[in-house]
Design a protein that fits this description.
Blueprint (H helix, E strand, L loop, with lengths): L1 H11 L4 H16 L5 H35 L4 H25 L18 H13 L2 H4 L1 H6 L1
Amino acid sequence: AHNLSFYFLQASGGEDEIQQLQKALLDYLDENTETDASLVFSRKFYIAQWFRDTTMETEKAIKSQKDEDSSEGTHHAKDVETTGQIMHRAESRKKFLRSIIKTAPSQFSTLKMNSDTVDYEDACLIVRYLASMRPFAQSFDIYLTQ
């Protein structure tokens, strides 16, 4: 998983970690579509799912901001900045995903970060990590305790 650690290091260099991992996974899917046609569907599914998740995240941030405004009357500058950061990150992800939607899988190779691509094991780790960030996975303990 040496390539996967490279993507995590790249993410700490300023770009969104989630977006870096999404790029790596889409790159892997694009590389292997010729040997497995089902990966074309997987690629489209992930793009749509991530776009939906990003939209939901933005709506949740706006709702949270409105709830705090109505309950406290005033807003702490730190809370506003955090909400703004979430919305900025969400818009950045949506912009990236829109650019991918407009790009044919065969043309996606021009958007690669570097010549190294992740292998199957790294792709599985990325999928598991990204899945763990989704709301259902994060609240799974609550479902089990209930």
